[in-house]
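Hi there, hope your week has been kind to you so far. No rush at all, and the record is pasted right below.
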Amino acid sequence: MNLSDIDLRLLEVFIAVVEGRGIANAQTLLNRDASTISRQLRQLEDRLELRLCERGRGGFQLTSDGEKVFRNTLALKQAVKTFEDCNESLKGHLSGQVRLAMIDNLITDPNCPLRRVLARYGARAENETHLHMEVMAPSQIEHALLDHRADLGIGIFPAHLPELHYEPMYEETDWLVCAPSNPLAGAESPEQVQSTLNACAKVARNFLNAQDTSRLGGEPSNVTAWVANIEAAALLILAGTHVGFLPNHYARSWIESGQMVAIRPDHFRRTSVIEVAFRPGREAQKPAVDALREDLFATLALFGRPAARVR
C-alpha cells in the first residue's frame, strides 16, 4: 500500500477513535459526526484490507490486526514529526510547534513565573512558533512527554520517572481549609483540630499519595474522596461535605469572602515543589523548545528562585 495524504488523514481518524475508546468520544476530538467517522474507518479498513476494530452494541475493541496497525501508526506519526522538527531547525529561526502541558490553576500563584516566561519568549526576534498549551493531571503530563505529545511539562511530580528529567521551579504552599458550616471550622488549638479532623470526611489529590493523607490524619482509608485536580477538591470543600488541603493562592478569594476557613495555617500547612519535566538527550532538542526552556530558567534565576541547569 502506497500512502497518500488521504490515507494519513484516515489514520489520524483511527488514532482519535482508539484514544477515545470509540466513535462517540472521537466526535469531540475530531469535530465530526459519528456517521462520518464510521465511514472513514470503513474506508481505511478497505484500503488496508484489514478489520481494525469491533464497534457496535458490544462496545469498542481493537482486533489483533488493529492493535498492530495502531502501534505502527503512532510510530509513523512520530517519524513524521521528527522529520518536520529537523526541517524546522534548519531555518535558522524559531518555528514549528511547542507543546506545553501543565497542572491546573497555576495562574493565581504569584510565585509562578509562566506569565513572565511567555512574555519573554513571545518577544524573541523571528519567533514563528505555534504554542499548544494543555491542562493535565501530573501522570498525564508524564505520559504525554514519554509519548512525544508534549515538549515541556509543569506540575507536581512526587515519583520521578527515570526516562524524564526534572528541575525545580518554586514551592507552592497548601493550607487546610473547610466551609464555615463544617465542624472543623470551630476548632482552635492544634490538638482540637487534629481530634475533629479524625472524624471529618476528607478529600485528597490522588497523585500526592501520602503527602496529602499523612497531614489529613492517617491512612489513605480515612480519605473518602480522591480527585485529580484542585477544582474538584474545592467544589467538595465549598459544599461543606469535605475538608482538605488547597493551594493558599487558589483558596484565598473564598477565604476572604467567608466561604472557606483556613484552619491554623501556622500549623496545618504543606508545601509542594512545582517542577518542569522534559525528555533528556539530543533527540528531545529542537530550537523552539530549547529557547522556551532557556527563557524559563533565565526568568527563575532573575527573580531569585532556584535556577536549574539547561540540559
User: Anything to note?
Assistant: Confidence is low (pLDDT under 50) at residues 306-311. Residues 99 and 151 are 5 Å apart (CA to CA). The chain has eleven helices and eleven strands. The longest strand covers residues 165-178.
